[in-house]
Amino acid sequence: MTAKQVARRLLYALILVGELTLAGSLSSEGMRGTIRKQSFGKTSSGEPIDLYSLSNKKGMEVSITNFGATVVTLRVPDRDGKPADIVLGFDTLEGYENGKSYFGATVGRYANRIGGGTFSIDGKIYTLPKNNGNNTLHGGIVGFNRKVWKAREIASKDGESLELSYLSADGEEGFPGNLSVKVVFTVPADRNELKIDYAATTDKDTVLNLSNHSYFNLAGEGNGDILDHVIAMHAKQFTPVDKTLIPTGELRDVAGTPMDFTTATPIGKRINDNYEQLVFGKGYDHNWVIARSGGGTDLTIAAQASDPKSGRTLEVLTTEPGVQFYSGNFLDGSAKGKGGKAYGQRAAFCLETQHFPDSPNHPNFPSTLLKPGAAFHSETVFRFSAK
């Protein structure tokens, strides 16, 4: 048997045991696809975890772990072509297991907050664990950010794609239905974007809200605060909250308030204004209602952010109706991130594309109900440039 025949048999054996797919290998050496796979350690319960790196020839590289379907690093060039990692995170798996800030994670079953930890479907009340005062945040005590996902490389016409899948059992964290979730991360070959496609099905009526919780500092993670970053929101309304950060149900116009980012404005310009909503959130931690023509669900721009120093710009596009702009108000330096850096207050910002917080308890909000036989799909694109 020739060396080539041996290699071919080994390849097919690996495909059969699920280590590879016909879409390409998880190694860049001599096979289709350039996604690199390496060990990221073991969980406290002994489960092996991996780290997958996707890149293109435009200078962008993203590393994702199957623990929490988490974006660990995201490197893009500045105006001089110098790349830097622009997302907060940890160097080790232990940081993600023990962390409390959801750095880079896929959050669910219900991203953001559910008031009182309860909701009802057809009159039946479901009770969830409360992990944010009297409320449920990002899916409960052990949300999707703490689950081990199954990874595989899949075929993509755009570039390198990694699919992460998870089966959330009926009753997990109090949510009804066996929910099958897939999240596909793609780095296009010809442009600096991170495209995230979400898909899900259920066997019982349930509620679903998925998002990615990356924390961005376009100057580079750990490189000061983001108060000089300039942001624009394509939204004329937001959903005001009570003092526990649960929406009141109102859709309030941003005009005449510090929540108005219809014109690009530095994050720090009004963040300390004596405005009730900013007092409640200790800064920005609110859902903006994305302005859409005709009320459709096509992929549309939700927000833009830029760093004057590096020249990096981030555009966020989504099919979702809302985006949570969070200015890192509750970071307090206790989280020691990459290289041992302390992430202090407002060290980064989040733009979490989503349905509205507490939607199951607000009939006037876009519905998050998912029924058997229906398929959930959502798309978000983080697009990067520099000038």
Query: What does the largest sheet look like?
Result: 9 strands, antiparallel
Unreliable sequence segments: 1-32
| CATH architecture title of the largest domain | Distorted Sandwich
| Portion of residues within helices | under 10%
Q: What series of H and E elements makes up the topology?
A: HEEEEEHEEEEEEEEEEEEEEEHEEEEEEE
* Relative strand content: 35-45%
CATH topology of the largest domain: Beta-galactosidase, Chain A, domain 5
Q: Please state the overall shape, judged from the principal axes of the Cα atoms.
A: globular
By DSSP, the count of extended strands is: 27
Instruction: Walk across the major sheet and give the strand order.
Output: 11-12-13-14-27-23-22-17-20
Amino- and carboxy-terminal Cα gap: 56 Å
Verbal overview:
- With 387 residues, this protein is mainly beta.
- It has 2 domains: 25 residues, no CATH class; 353 residues, Beta-galactosidase, Chain A, domain 5 (Distorted Sandwich), CATH 2.70.98.10.
- Helices cover 7% and strands 36% of the residues.
- It contains 3 helices and 27 strands.
- A 9-stranded antiparallel beta sheet has the order 11-12-13-14-27-23-22-17-20, with no helix packed on it. A 5-stranded antiparallel beta sheet has the order 1-2-3-4-5, with no helix packed on it.
- A hairpin with a 4-residue loop joins strand 3 and strand 4.
- It is globular.
- The termini are far apart.
- The N terminus is likely disordered.
